[in-house]
Amino acid sequence: MLSAFLPPNFDATKPVALIAGRGDYPLLAAAAIRRTGVPLRLIAMDDETSPELVASFAAADRVTLNVGQVGKMLAALRGFGAGYALMAGQVKPKKLFHGLTPDIKAAQILLSLKRRNAETIFGSIAAEIEKLGVTLLDARAFLDEHLATPGSMTGGPFPVEQEYLDHGIHIAREIARLDIGQGCVVRKGTVIAVEAFEGTDDMLRRAGQFKTDETLFVKTVKPQQDFRFDVPVFGLRTLQTMHEAKLGAAALETGKVIVLDRPAVLRQAKIWGIALHGF
Question: What span, in angstroms and rounded, lies between the C-alpha atoms of 257 and 146?
């Protein structure tokens, strides 16, 4: 089986178009797809997608566009004859709301939205992709081996008592239910920081300003998470931010949070003494 997150009728002869944002996530996804032998094409975002990833595709197999060029993206999917698309990597949140120069299709989408946030914008783009007959894949597809798994991922006992772990999970899930964010930092039953628009790393830095012994970072998902374009990730950058903030433990929801380059993350976590646990 190629991946547990592919549709049952997945046709491995049809190209997958990787819609790539920033960071290592698209690089990891591209490498995983290439290992399966499934044809791969690239839709890169100007000033977002890694030049290394762009250079790894032949000119005929890639298109680069600005964030607001939805019409050009749809045309690229048609031109590639793509059967599937996979969104991987972030776009700077401010680009969705400030300085966006939309083409006609993007302008139509924005004007149709009563609420403009990342979820509604990407949800509408996903609907346009599906109208072409292109299936937008679960963004965890092909990355099964990089997902959080149950229990200790770094070995040894978890340094946070079960009562406080349960409290952290409860708070994180409530924040996610209210669509505020997908993470929080708690300490012995006290909420230290919650994630909102500023993102995970800035939240962790704020948490590091307080007493940090026995602190816990919890990462979860929303009750109705759309995994086609919104998958929480935990990678080396987040791990380094935890290390700098002197936060010693993280709990990640199993099967739902991607541990970007999991072997490297677990190796470095052990070096820094940061415990990673799947719940």
Answer: 9
Provide the sign of the torsion angle of the four alpha carbons 107, 109, 113, 115, taken in this order. Answer: negative
Query: Computed from CA positions of residues 139, 142, 148, 151, in that sequence, does the dihedral angle turn out positive or negative?
Result: positive
pLDDT digits (tens, 9 = 90+) for 134-179: 999 999 999 999 999 999 999 999 999 999 999 999 999 999 999 9
228: helix, strand or coil: coil
Beta bridge partners of 217: 185, 250
**What does 92-130 look like in DSSP terms, one character per residue?**
-HHHHHSS----HHHHHHHHH-SS-SHHHHHHHHHHHHH
Task: Report yes or no: 154 and 274 within 8 Å, Cβ to Cβ.
Answer: yes
> Could you tell me which residues come within 8 angstroms of residue 271 by beta carbon, excluding any fewer than 6 positions away?
none
All domains of the chain in start order, with CATH: 16-136 (3.40.50.20), 147-278 (3.40.140.80)
